[in-house]
Amino acid sequence: MISKIFKFLILTFVAVAFTSTMAANLPYTEWFFIPLIILCAYAIIKPTAIPVLRGRNGALAIMPFAILGALVALTYKTDLELQQLRTNNPSRYLEYIEAYRTENFYLAELKKLRPQMYEDVIQRKREEQSTKENEIRAKAAAKKAAELQMLKETLLATDKSNLAEVYRLSQAIYKIESTPENEQAKSNAAKQYADQLWEEVRKIPVSQYEKNLDIYTKLAAVDPTQKVKEKQNFYLEKIRLIEEQERYPHNFVVIKNLIWRKTGFGSIAEIDLLIRNDLQRNVKDVSFSCTLRASSGTIVGTKKDTILEVFPAQESKWVVNFSLGFIDKQASNMECLITSVK
Asked: Is 214 helix (H, G, I), strand (E, B) or coil?
């Protein structure tokens, strides 16, 4: 099987090489290959019409080589005609390649055949490029001038008590036209706006984290001092903490102290818990889980339960004499943690 495939590949390579060589070197070979393609197509449609091609399979085998030969022959013929045209009529040759070949190829040939014309073409292209760039710059300048005029008119029409808008417009004007006058106007607007923000933030209670953060974020843009950055980070952290408390409230209700003992002849566990609620709201129905271990450290049981009481926000509360029920008598150590709250 492998030897047959190898023979087929060798024969195919030889046939392709022979066909390409013949098509590229013999004149008028396209008149051999094109009729051969037609005959093969006819033999494929009517296998018995041309016995010499041995039916449809023979025609299908010969068809690719006929097509390859025709393509190579036509390509070679075109290239040969172009070379003759290049020698006999350079002007006509240049017109042809300008229309049907790439611009780089045309320019390379133009440089060889018509050096002065090449220089003229290059100069014209440079002028066209320069004109386009000047048009783009002019449009950008006109757009910038129109935008600047609109901003200045808006600033004149703006209520001067609206310091935030005055600062925004002054900053936008300076960004477009960075003159000393505009810089001074921007600085004055920034100072007035910052004074207003400082006055506002003094009236907001510390507990209103989002309002404080909004003010300090605005201040950071006009008065980026270390104090402002620290305040901004402080309120960001507070808000992040609140979001985390809302998502995982049981992580902020913790057992601060645990006292346990055995009762009922050592078979029942009873605990006293000091529970701390660090949330900003009251919680209730605190569920917890306790792990009991023997003196060797081996786990001998787990107990789960819920304390159906209210635990005030930001306070600690004792729960005493809470029974966990029956336990393994070998239990000598207990660890408890909060699992959920409401």
From this structure: helix
* Ranges of the chain whose pLDDT falls below 70: 1-63, 65-80
Q: What is the pLDDT of residue 58?
A: 60
pLDDT (0 to 100) of residue 3: 53
- pLDDT at residue number 136: 92
CA-to-CA distance for 339 and 304, rounded, in angstroms? 9
Lookup: tokens for 38: 């037609």
Instruction: Quickly count: other Cβ atoms within 10 Å of residue 86's Cβ.
Output: 17
Q: Which of 197, 205, 204, 183 is nearest to 227 (CA)?
A: 197
Q: Name the one residue in this structure whose structure tokens are 């703006």.
A: 158
Write the Ramachandran bin of 25: left for phi over 0, alpha for psi from -120 to 50, otherwise beta.
Answer: alpha
Would you say 216 and 225 are in contact if contact means Cβ atoms under 8 Å apart?
A: no
Paired tokens of 1: 């099987």
CB 158 within 8 A of CB 165: yes
Other CB atoms closer than 10 Å to residue 152's CB: what's the count? 16
Distance CA 149, CA 242 (A): 46
Asked if 194 and 219 count as a contact pair (C-beta separation under 8 A), the reply is yes
Query: Against a cut of 0.70, is the pTM above it?
Result: no
Among residues 131, 135, 96, 130, the alpha carbon closest in space to that of 113 is found at: 96
Give the pLDDT of residue 254: 85
What does the CA dihedral 105, 107, 108, 113 come to, rounded to 10 degrees?
A: 120
Q: How far apart are CA 66 and CA 135, in angstroms?
A: 55
Among all chains, which residue has been given the structure tokens 């050096």? 115
What residue ranges define each of the domains in the chain, with the CATH number in brackets? 2-88 (no CATH), 163-244 (no CATH), 249-340 (2.60.40.3230)
Residue type for position 231:
K
What does the block give as tokens for 147?
A: 């935008």
312 torsion bin: left (phi>0), alpha (psi -120 to 50), beta (else): beta
Quote the DSSP letter at residue 333: E
SS3 279: coil
Which pair of structure tokens corresponds to residue 134? 């000047």
Residue with tokens 């910052």: 194
CA dihedral (23, 28, 32, 35) positive or negative: positive
